[in-house]
Design a protein that fits this description.
eight-stranded parallel β-sheet; homotetramer; alpha/beta; 311 residues
Chain lengths: 311, 311, 311, 311
Amino acid sequence: MTFPAPLTGVVPPVCTPLTPDREVDVPSLLSLVDHLVAGGVHGLFLLGSTSEAAFLTDRGRRQVVETVVAHVGGQLPVLAGAIDMTTARVLDHVAAVTAAGAQAVVVTAPFYAPTHPAEIARHYRRVAAGSPVPVIAYDIPVSVPGRLPAELVLELAADGVLAGLKDSSGDLGGFREVVAGVGARAGTTGFSVLTGSELIVDAALAVGADGAVPGLANVDPHGYVRLYRLARAGDWDAARAEQERLCALFGLTRAGDPVRMGAGSSALGAFKAALYLRGVIGCPVTAEPQIPLSAGEIKRVEAFLAAAGLV
Amino acid sequence: MTFPAPLTGVVPPVCTPLTPDREVDVPSLLSLVDHLVAGGVHGLFLLGSTSEAAFLTDRGRRQVVETVVAHVGGQLPVLAGAIDMTTARVLDHVAAVTAAGAQAVVVTAPFYAPTHPAEIARHYRRVAAGSPVPVIAYDIPVSVPGRLPAELVLELAADGVLAGLKDSSGDLGGFREVVAGVGARAGTTGFSVLTGSELIVDAALAVGADGAVPGLANVDPHGYVRLYRLARAGDWDAARAEQERLCALFGLTRAGDPVRMGAGSSALGAFKAALYLRGVIGCPVTAEPQIPLSAGEIKRVEAFLAAAGLV
Amino acid sequence: MTFPAPLTGVVPPVCTPLTPDREVDVPSLLSLVDHLVAGGVHGLFLLGSTSEAAFLTDRGRRQVVETVVAHVGGQLPVLAGAIDMTTARVLDHVAAVTAAGAQAVVVTAPFYAPTHPAEIARHYRRVAAGSPVPVIAYDIPVSVPGRLPAELVLELAADGVLAGLKDSSGDLGGFREVVAGVGARAGTTGFSVLTGSELIVDAALAVGADGAVPGLANVDPHGYVRLYRLARAGDWDAARAEQERLCALFGLTRAGDPVRMGAGSSALGAFKAALYLRGVIGCPVTAEPQIPLSAGEIKRVEAFLAAAGLV
Amino acid sequence: MTFPAPLTGVVPPVCTPLTPDREVDVPSLLSLVDHLVAGGVHGLFLLGSTSEAAFLTDRGRRQVVETVVAHVGGQLPVLAGAIDMTTARVLDHVAAVTAAGAQAVVVTAPFYAPTHPAEIARHYRRVAAGSPVPVIAYDIPVSVPGRLPAELVLELAADGVLAGLKDSSGDLGGFREVVAGVGARAGTTGFSVLTGSELIVDAALAVGADGAVPGLANVDPHGYVRLYRLARAGDWDAARAEQERLCALFGLTRAGDPVRMGAGSSALGAFKAALYLRGVIGCPVTAEPQIPLSAGEIKRVEAFLAAAGLV
């Protein structure tokens, strides 16, 4: 299949189920993919932050892409993160995930090494030159300090370097600036602007987003697909109501005690606990060195599922 | 050879010379190692930030360690960075660099993924459990957000998890807190406290540091070794004069125009330009996506070398 | 008049026109207030960030409130910032601005002094206990580090400490969490949730905001009032089109050269240049130590006004 | 008396004792000043961060300066902070504290308002032009985001704008850069470089500091004066031993539970508790909205005093 331009719809960043030994749990991964496809999602984003890409070994990453690509067999677009610190390392991941069948790659600005906008531009130009598939920029300030300036994204879009943006900044004003630039600028047709937020998908679609990449869609893909369809149909009141239900459900990400663990351990642990409680995956464990949720914290996740009508 | 406990002296983070095609330049790397050994350094730290570890592919990293270990053949301790985002990925690097002959590994707290002190502790415990060689913690806030709390470092030292600390924070007060804890606490004998600063090596030694890991020692190893010896001899006035000469030389790291590039491109580009101008390496190029120094900027590096009596 | 609960509509943070000597320019201030009232705004917020409250002396602050209160004479609600570092200093400003006639005060978390959520809560409780008028919390992370946690805002709302929130964080997801909590929680009826963004007023109203406090409404109050009315009438497409026109106009805030000045000098200088070019105020000068826009930069502001149909 | 150029020695940032009603406790303030003078300090810095300047009303600030100036009557230099957000407000404080008798003012870069180096330079030039007494720059990144670049400080020193620097950044490398520039640059003779750290006074003096402004000197002025004299006499080993005793004592700043309060509440609360326990002041209360230490936390302060031989 040809990769869509622009990519649209709900494209969940797919969780990576693990065995108690922290190996990729292939049967659970397939079950999760089936759950997402049954939910009607429009694409799959593997090896994103929600997928614990930062925690997986290269072998684990490759296994995830090969497994999912073999399973979905061209039914829907499969994107993969190529998450690493700088250009040459990212290009190695691009080679690996495209060899494994990914149809687009998702790439952040350099991190660990301090950066300057000129270095970010150079990074994306080199990565795109070396990638056999479209490159989507990933703006995730919680992990990669700084922001991708809208002006830079649009320049790289116009030059054919970038095929899209996944914006996980939560800043709808900046997001909108990119949306406004697309189309207004020669060469940007087909560029896809995607929100990475769970909480403002309705608003992002209303201002012109092409789609959404919400981690919570692992837990409730049907909800996000419903929300997307309502928004596309212009039924904004119903979209808002669906979004508010999902916002309430998102409270599960705070199940973990902040005195005992970081926000990431809590959120990723809660997504996996929810998938386990819903019977989608076989084990709720997260990768090291994340702190596991306690039994009491998992009970809190269960209460959120119940309130959202999911158990 | 047995890895020293504590590790002491001047242990430069060895630059990684590259060819114009951004491959590891093996002859230049050997020449640089010879230059450092001739300068009297007490150990070699490969694959640190100054080594552009964040920019090198896994293949390049392995090549660096194998090349240097084969060349120095047990004459002096060789440490290697195992720089990656989280536990399992770090352990893969630990396996690779120790297979290639590194006698200790240098490991940061997790990055990209948000962290909590409990997750940092868990990370180091898991890494140490899986490492065949001593683990040295690397505190480098410019790359890894947050700080390694002194209390946490000391707890991990007392438990035999950590064999040392390379502190690149520039915060001598916090550094001193670790120094004070070592020895005062059971089980910390042999723990090595190393400063990563170029500018306060005399002060760090005066407050009890075991040694230093200054990037600028690539350019002037003799200077840092002289400084170390003067300090160990208690000749603090002469040590201070030597340090001040090196502080002036450090001005070369600002050769690059900050409107055009980031601080990293400027500093690493200047180190390599200086090594090239001194005839140590064959090509001053840095890894992508760093911005190269212009001819005029390289002239500025040359002026610093001249002022320091190095050309 | 009774202060409305909740406060709704467009409540511009009123610019403070200055004379070339950096005194409050009273005739220009009155002209600006007339311009805003003629634009149909629903309230006036004096001494906010856009008002250069951080730059005005206590005398200047008092003069602003007295001048405006005397002029509008109860026609519409007048709020005033009580912007200072900590509790006792804020209470002195509360006393001054309410003596001058302000009907509500707008207060940030403590700054300069490092803070903890428990200290923020204590601060608001003490300020509210000492204020004769309603207290509105001001969340402006660009000036006051950290965020006001939604949970804390809602707790203080439920306890009658806070009458509203002006959220200038740009984070619509967090904003929405406050909106969802109001009404859902006993004691929060009448609490006003206001966005401080210029760029996402339509989206904020769609998710349930009571109103907006956009700095750009100084330049184009009619536009924001139109946008508000369209949103209230449920005509979201027209509201979005109006918002997009205003987003384009907001580009004037980048008129100043970032190599030469900070973002604040550029934005506040551009607002005042626009008001000057529109004939509303007599002098476009900003307070010290802000860098003035050059003639060429003011031309850029003029081009934005022309594109928006405002000259 | 003429204000010394350079100012040298131990210049404590004087705590501001408060009554249970959070008014300035004049008898306790006089007692504290007597305690410091008896300890041999070389100057007094009023209205600094340790003095809770950010928490005091204008009336309280004035009262502090008047009280102390009247009491010490020219025996030793008295500096006062003029801590506020921007130029005009700072100038009002400069006028107030110099009218009350301060012989120099201590001024930060602008805060709350975002800043640019050009705006910081403009700020100091305007403040100095309007100040009847010398201006000392105050670099305190924990309160004022960013850093004062060494180059900027030296430029302002050479132009006669600044008479000194109080560096509370903890970054000895940057501190040293300022020290090196003073004297090397025309017009900087008499410029005073002071460290604001409690923990590295020996090291700062060794690299060329003129003096120190340690908050902990409220608790143990004799210790810091002894340290200063030992360093000036070149007895670095004894100076280091004294500094290490004071580093251990500094542990009292962590007496407060970090789950319950911020670092500031803990540190300032502990200084005052120590002064109370030593019988110097009548009440250990801190200003609102700081969280008071519990009885158990005060016991921890007492243990630190005992260990340091101070009770």
